[in-house]
Amino acid sequence: MPRLIVELADRSYPIHADRGLLNDSDFLHQTLQQPRLLLVTDENVAPHWLAPLQRALGERLVHAVVLPAGEAQKNLVTLERLFDELARHRIGRDGALLALGGGVVGDLTGFAAACWQRGTAFHQIPTTLLAQVDASVGGKTAVNHPSGKNLIGAFHQPRSVIADTATLSTLPDREFRAGLAEVIKHALIADLELLVWLESRVRELNDRDPETVAECVIRCCRIKAAVVAEDETEQGRRAILNFGHTFAHVIEGACGYGEWLHGEAVAAGMALALELSRRLGNINEEGRDRGIALMRDLQLPVNAPALDHQTWLDWMARDKKATASGLRLIVLDRLGHASVRGDVSEADLLATIAWRPAAED
Ligand SMILES: O=C(O)C(=O)C[C@@H](O)[C@H](O)[C@H](O)COP(=O)(O)O
């Protein structure tokens, strides 16, 4: 079974990625060792994937919380509901939370685990492509605040990541494509070979060919595990994983959480980040348009919504990467390599947010 380790000294953990893991009772027993488990999932995922876990874990799974689906749930009200359930079911420090679902469930559950009794174990069981290639790995947990995405959160690493690629078969098409945005992100920031490979697999990706998709999961997790191992709490290099996200978080927040899926906003945000990289002279038009063409080929939105420039600037000013001396933005130095820039002029920023890709022929 493909297995990677996120190397973080005493907080190291495995990423198991394979087809059929949720139907492997022995594997689940060995991996989810805590005696009392509380599972969190949502209404879309529960009908498909809750039963196998209930069967495998029996009475050790003391309760399953089924939340309404969507980004609008990622808030303090839902978090409080999770704390009530943890108290009601007497989950102590020897227990664990299980996050069965996409990025919203993973971020919420992880943050509840980070806070509960000052830190309780949790396991990520991602069922969306976005969560399998990105959100479930690295220990970023959070809820949204009305003034900004993920503003209330903590770094809290899971004990394991269990990515059963069979779960992707029940994923709606829009969700699947949103996950592809984060796959493209990994290629653009860290792996030119992956970019070339994705360009050669457009048909398979659009057909959701299981082997191609499974390879995306493994390759992205490998990249992400290496970046996180180098800089767990985003003091430096880890920020490259935020490529396109400063713009994406404006789109998600200003349009109302849930209107744009996170991955869709990331695609439109990466189109702007590619343009900014070109404007700074790091890549040429051909490089910029290559990234945008791949997103278009995979039917991702590349046009950010029309927001007035003050809205962009106000939301961006609350970005977590911003410091007293101003914004820090992620740009490509070249295709397949990214860095953090704190010296982007307001003129370049305003020109970038006003820019949109040319219409397709
Ligand atoms: O893991 C990271 O680091 C990332 O930035 C990955 C992002 O794709 C992910 O969306 C993350 O949750 C965003 O974090 P934030 O710190 O920008 O809220």
Automatic annotation (TrEMBL):
Keyword presence, Zinc: yes
Transmembrane regions: none
Domain 3-dehydroquinate synthase N-terminal residues, every copy: 65-177
Catalyses which reaction(s): 7-phospho-2-dehydro-3-deoxy-D-arabino-heptonate = 3-dehydroquinate + phosphate
Any matching Pfam family: DHQS_C
Pathway per the UniProt entry: Metabolic intermediate biosynthesis; chorismate biosynthesis; chorismate from D-erythrose 4-phosphate and phosphoenolpyruvate: step 2/7
Molecular function as annotated in GO: 3-dehydroquinate synthase activity
Name of the protein described by the UniProt record: 3-dehydroquinate synthase
Organism: Natronospira bacteriovora
Originating gene: aroB
